[in-house]
Amino acid sequence: MNAFARALLALALAAIAVPARATTIQRVVSPGGIEAWLVRETAVPLIAVDFAFVGGSVQDPPGKGGTANLVASLLDQGAGNLDSQAFADALDRKAIEMNFYADRDHLGGALRTLTENRDEAFDMLRLALTAPRFDAADVELNRAQILSMLRRRSTSPVDIANRRWWQTAFAGQPYGRPVSGTRETLPDITIDDLKSYWHRVLARQNLKIAVVGDIDAETLKPLLDRVFGALPAKPDLVPVANVVPRGLGRRIDISLDVPQAVVDFGGPGIARKDPDFMAAYVINHILGGGSSDSRLYQEVREKRGLAYSVSNSLIWLDHSALFLGGTASRADRAGETLDVIEKQIHRFAEQGPTAAELAEAKNYVTSSFALNLDTSTKIASLLVQLQLDDLGIDYFQQRTASIDAVTLDDAKRVAKRLFDNGMLVTVVGKPEGVASAAVASGPAVSSQRRAPLTGPPIGPANSELR
Amino acid sequence: MSSKMLLLAAALAAAAIGPAHAAAGPEVASFVLSNGLEVVVIPDHRAPVVTHMIWYKVGAADETPGKSGLAHFLEHLMFKGTAKNPGATFAQDVAEIGGQENAFTGSDYTGFYQRVPRAHLKEMMAFEADRMTGLVLSDDVVEPELKVVLEEQNMRIANNPGARLSEQMDAALYLNHPYGRPAIGWRPEIEKLDREDALAFYRRFYSPNNAIVVVAGDVTFDEVKADAEATYGKVADRAPTNLRRRPMEPPQEASRAVTLADPRVEQPSVSREYLVPSETTAKPGESEALDVLAHVLGTGADCRLYRTLVVDKGIALNAGAYYSGTALDYAEFGVYGAPKPGVALHDVEAGIDGVLNAVIDRGITADELDRAKTRLIADAVYAQDNQVTLARWYGSALATGQTVDMVRSWPDRIRAVTADAVQQAARSWLDRRRSVTGYLVPSLQPQESHS
Lengths: 466, 451
Description:
The complex is a heterodimer.
Chain A (H helix, E strand, L loop, with lengths): L2 H11 L12 E4 L5 E6 L5 E9 L12 H8 L9 H10 L3 E6 L3 E9 L3 H13 L5 H18 L3 H13 L21 H11 L5 E7 L3 H12 L22 E5 L4 E9 L8 H12 L6 H8 L4 E10 L4 E10 L3 H18 L3 H13 L8 H13 L6 H10 L3 H12 L4 E6 L37
Parallel strand pairs in A: 2-6, 7-11
Antiparallel strand pairs in A: 1-2, 3-5, 3-6, 4-5, 8-10, 8-11, 9-10
Chain B lengths: L28 E4 L5 E6 L5 E8 L13 H8 L11 H8 L3 E6 L4 E8 L3 H13 L5 H20 L2 H13 L13 H4 L4 H11 L5 E7 L3 H10 L25 E6 L7 E8 L9 H13 L5 H9 L3 E9 L6 E9 L5 H18 L3 H18 L3 H13 L4 H5 L1 H6 L3 H11 L5 E7 L10
Helix pairs in contact in B: 1-7, 3-8, 9-12, 9-16, 10-11, 11-16
């Protein structure tokens, strides 16, 4: 689950009204002891599986950044006695969708199949997880594809701003390393490194699974053993220290000849298990949570026309928490835009939200949750996140109460706690209007994304924009 | 077909749009109100939510020359309030009930939608019916919004060399038809748009007889009909139906090539667009054959282009093909490839041509045909898992001249495609004279230029 998706999920999780026909989650435990959360839904003849292993790019060996991501890109590139073409062919013939990703804390994946191809699909997943081939030709192709993507990102202002933010905030820490690796580290990753990573991280103890769709618990149980049962019981993970983002008060300007400057801003956040998390979630919605009602949206976009998008997200990681926001503005007005954002965040930290804003935000965060439960893949992804966050199978029932419990005093106190620490800011472009003052506080837009699975360097020109 | 890319205004959370085709799963029904508004109902009772969309049958291709970007600019301005619901009343209501909203503009349509808890459908219809004719615009909201749109152009196009090339390719592909204009507009023309332009466009096109409402979710046909009559039914049709008779393409006789050079290009690529029939203009079976052809040539790691260029020859890092057929007048069939470091772009292009020529000369195999059909038909089932995907599919089809029955029959029409039809489609339409090839390169050095 990437951080941005997590942020969206947080939006969802922060407060769920239990839907009229509440989604019923069953805890299914296989004879072999493998647990999955199941939502049975027979209206559409398909099954969606989502899963994640704890241990993402933070488990990359020293100097081998990008290992987890390269492993993820190769898991569906040949397994067992099927080479990469035969594997792709077998999936294609049954219209089985399978993909894997790595983020900072996890290696995960998803499977989607028509019910009629259920057994074949689960078998293909078993092969991918338990018998990946890592054939040399496929390793080299995937490495070349990821290097191509890194070259492209090296001149993309959005990627530069984001990468520099993480590198600075977590300098010398695993979270400071790009998930996809760098042009320096990728060439050094060996096939043995890939196999070692796969063997160390893909285990049963650090695995979370969700299944949604046209399948019942009794059918699922033996399939869980079949797919995941051959994995080692325990992973061999390197301990990772808890860290906080650094560089607060700094602004880093990176020169790039583009008409529009890209700005990322962020600082320390609040852990998912912190009692203040829900308050933080709700107030961030008010400040910059992606609604046209948010203060940043109103001040930056609606009133001044400075940017097309501006938002702020809470991101929680296994070993840190942060807020990260972003915007993009005409080069000669980037300074003004940043100034508006800083003033808004400072004011919010000092005064917090109004009672009316808080009431509206609580209502939104509560009611909007149902919108995240309308497709099998979204539900499966959410259920894995709930397990990773250790929130309990009754979370849907608890969520509304935890939102209701946020008082105006909480909101004001947490606004101060969250937004009064100063921010690290990165600016890419020709920001003529940026003054060299120290910065107050704030976070960045979409951070890492799911790594491209087969690494297509370009897509068709007609992908939809939103 | 970047000219028909959808540009969404409010940057709110939006559901990902999945495969282009949905299935004949739910019992989709439609009706027409006395004022000409068509309403489509797609039941999906899995969650207590509803997706409400209105599609106006007007887009960037309907703009007056010199006013490019106007359809999209108006889409943004539609969020500025009405006499009855001033300012952000509508947006605030959506937020308060935990809903999401967004909008999009293409060459053939402009759409607005909300996803809300099911109980609020009628409320959404009332808001949307109100702003169909009740928009109020003042210069103090129009002027900042124009700046927002210019920043959107910066973000989507100006900052992105690949997007800039795509715009130039469309402009070169269409010799006469307005699909050659970018949906977001040409920047010098966007800069000159104003309130009067927007209101004139609005009065000319926004009317119930030029619109389609799509409701997907936890609803019944009868309740949607009653709610629609009580809300949209009260809006008088105020404009003549948009006939959308656009300047059409003359015979295309010369292949075109365009090169965009930018020092920021770190991964060169080559792409080509062919002018082909759309689902609306194609002869029976033709667009379906193009769907299959695109899949066999260019979808997934086992397609011909990827297998030949990336796996077997090892000259490219990526290669593929697509057919984006949902359009009123024309569609594009695209192929693309990105070379490995050290490989010349023209070698990748030659490789692509080799694959295309093989299909033109020898057709596809029965096995390829079966696999493509299986996958395309499965996509229709997968689409049923997402009510927004289904609503988008029906809305875009109907807004470009198709019918509910055509959408529902799509899986059957794919089943009926023959290998001969696919070869015939390749022969007829993969014609260089009706194409533009685009090269994305870091500089116009001699070894990288193309003529």
